[in-house]
Design a protein that fits this description.
Largest sheet: 4 strands, antiparallel
Number of strands: 10
Radius of gyration: 18 Å
Strand content: 15-25%
């Protein structure tokens, strides 16, 4: 049970709740520590909890029968992990791991289903985020198919910075190459290029954003579509 409802403000979805909705969900939320590389969901496994990050980043990873994995989306404090619950799908369609550590509030799947039955406005909010996330996944597919590695890396850094709400966050060449499904050598070249124009500083196991405007220019339209849809549907 959540002792202090002020903690809701740390998650951008929960921060928009009406007083009635906040009072409804608060007793069913509990603090949870998201540890680096912790697996929150496994593909095709039943879902026990939904997570509302207050910090940190979760990677949503699709995988095929051959074991190939690629990141299809990122979720942080702007949303929640557990979209299949509100769609009554019961099982996870993707693997979800903690990419950057942080705190979260979690709610059991049973209580989340009860909450959306009791509050249409809460259900609507979560469905709106589900829509925005589907736009993000679509844009990731377009980016992976048509953008250069440098553009894809720039887009990924911008999305990570949005969710980390900081200029610095964890990153390794190997992890990034797996997330955007390119060879490690391609990632190394893209990082060197971005460092050369002073957009980023790549250090051991982390990256620092030096100039966001350069990354936005390089990423182009591949970055802004889902973000604009979020701003349109979900109040600040």
């Amino acid at each position: 049970m959540l002792d202090d409802t002020k903690a809701l403000a740390g998650n951008m979805l929960l921060a928009t709740l009406s007083r009635a909705d906040a009072a409804l969900v608060s007793p069913w939320l509990e603090n949870f520590e998201m540890i680096l590389q912790k697996e929150l969901y496994q593909t095709h496994q039943s879902i026990d909890f939904a997570y509302f990050p207050l910090g940190g980043i979760c990677s949503v990873i699709a995988e095929n029968a051959q074991g190939t994995r690629v990141e299809t989306g990122l979720i942080g404090r702007e949303g929640f992990v557990g979209i299949p619950i509100i769609l009554f799908a019961e099982k996870a369609s993707s693997r979800i791991i903690v990419q950057a550590p942080g705190r979260a509030l979690r709610m059991s799947s049973t209580k989340l289903l009860e909450a959306i039955e009791l509050s249409r406005s809460f259900h609507k909010l979560l469905l709106q985020f589900a829509h925005v996330f589907s736009v993000q996944v679509t844009q990731a597919a377009i980016s992976n198919a048509h953008n250069t590695i440098q553009q894809r890396v720039a887009r990924w850094f911008l999305m990570c910075q949005d969710r980390a709400d900081a200029r610095e966050f964890p990153m390794t060449h190997e992890f990034l190459s797996k997330m955007i499904d390119v060879r490690r050598a391609g990632v190394t070249d893209a990082l060197a290029s971005l460092e050369g124009i002073y957009a980023i500083k790549a250090l051991r196991n982390r990256v620092i954003i030096l100039d966001r405007s350069i990354l936005e220019e390089i990423a182009g339209g591949s970055y802004s579509v889902a973000e604009k849809e979020y701003a349109r549907l979900i109040p600040a």
